[in-house]
């Protein structure tokens, strides 16, 4: 997998959550999201308890609330979609502050906001406590098809390479006095995009030839064998198990 690769969502730390094997955290987050999605939308109190559980995980992981809330801004488009649902959905209507809103739309908006926010928050906590390289090792440990793991690994690394190439090209343009101010500059930007594509393709070909010359035959060697003890699995699955109890109460009460 190569050397460690830090990303902007990762927050370096030495908490018990950081120390868990990556595949246990992946399994726990996946199970938690499944439980949240399975909860009836009418059990509004259950989603509050889920938020408390995630808050407890954030405290144990020493992830500040501000850090978590800033990363939650990624779901703004889904919030905008949810806000529109009460206005466009059909069915029984109700007046709220002088506006005629759909009852089904209101429930649908609440369902999207509650479950979406909890899912995104759980994913942010996973990313904040697990490096990308560890996530890839965790996916490999969970028996994800090796080809998909390789594609994800290359995509992450080439994403940074292409971003760095774009930065150098922007600096080169600005050093020559270019500044995009309108439609008439789109041609220059289009040529830059074409040059970036060609450079990226050529670099990919060179890297592939270098890998083949070193014995690459379609599979990457496993350098780190990640294992987890029973205690670590128990610790990681505490979150989805507690959420499952809340979900069952939500269906029965």
TrEMBL record:
Protein name: Cobalt ABC transporter, permease CbiQ
Keywords, comma-separated and alphabetical: Cell membrane, Membrane, Transmembrane, Transmembrane helix
Any one of the GO CC terms: ATP-binding cassette (ABC) transporter complex
Organism (species): Streptomyces azureus
InterPro entries xrefs: ABC/ECF_trnsptr_transmembrane (IPR003339), ECF_CbiQ (IPR012809), ECF_transporter_component (IPR051611)
Sequence intervals crossing the membrane: 44-65, 72-89, 109-130, 233-251
Alphabetical GO biological process terms: cobalt ion transport
UniProt-annotated location(s): Cell membrane
Family annotation (CDD domains): EcfT (cd16914)
Pfam families on file: CbiQ
Database matches in NCBIfam families: ECF_T_CbiQ
Topology with respect to the bilayer: Multi-pass membrane protein
Superkingdom field: Bacteria
